[in-house]
From TrEMBL:
Family: Belongs to the shikimate kinase family.
Enzyme Commission number(s) of this protein: 2.7.1.71
InterPro entries the UniProt entry points to: P-loop_NTPase (IPR027417), Shikimate/glucono_kinase (IPR031322), Shikimate_kinase/TSH1 (IPR000623)
Cofactor needs: Mg(2+)
This protein's name: Shikimate kinase
Pathway(s) it belongs to: Metabolic intermediate biosynthesis; chorismate biosynthesis; chorismate from D-erythrose 4-phosphate and phosphoenolpyruvate: step 5/7
Protein's UniProt keywords contain Metal-binding: yes
Cofactor detail note: Binds 1 Mg(2+) ion per subunit.
Keywords: Amino-acid biosynthesis, Aromatic amino acid biosynthesis, ATP-binding, Cytoplasm, Kinase, Magnesium, Metal-binding, Nucleotide-binding, Transferase
HAMAP family named among the record's database cross-references: Shikimate_kinase (MF_00109)
One GO location term (cellular component): cytosol
Main location: cytoplasm
Gene: aroK
Keyword ATP-binding: yes
Amino acid sequence: MSRQTAIPLRERNIILIGFMGAGKTTIGQLVAKKLYRDFIDVDAEIERRHGMSIPEMFAQKGEAYFRQVERELIVDLCTNTRLKILSLGGGAYLQEDVRRVCLAHGIVFFLDLSWDYWKEERLPLIVDSRPVLKNKTLEEVEQLFFQRQSAYALHHSRVIVNELEAEQAADQIVESIKWTWDVYEPNR
Ligand code: S3P
């Protein structure tokens, strides 16, 4: 059995998960600002460390390589950092190791949105920049959207972001997190 002491809730990383285009980066930046914390976008961090964009990495090294890099970085961030706001790429949470470390060491918020809203409002904005959407029919993208929901269902808290401004979603997360801190760690 691990002898590691559990990380106090107030020090845990706050981790945003959800489908592509749910607003994880924008909302994560706002949450970080409101809580005076550092923000790390996992995809941007991968791009910085490897000196290539995610689409370039998919094209030159393949998706399996990207998934390994993504998993290793998230495991490292979850086990070796605290007090951060992390936003994960939409496919990262499909990996069991990623779910395990996020749930064990962080507080996981699922940014949920409906298929209809996503298809109308978000898909047109990201369709050309996300390699996993490339060469897929709308039916295949819909399948991917619903296939992923069972992984996203493993979270600590959920925010329905349909129709919400990023600022409102960030406020909901901050309110929820402060409530959690106050209820479960009132004397810290
Ligand atoms: C992916 C989502 C992307 C990025 C990569 C793969 C996915 O991140 O990690 O293109 O499989 O859903 P966003 O969720 O920020 O678009």
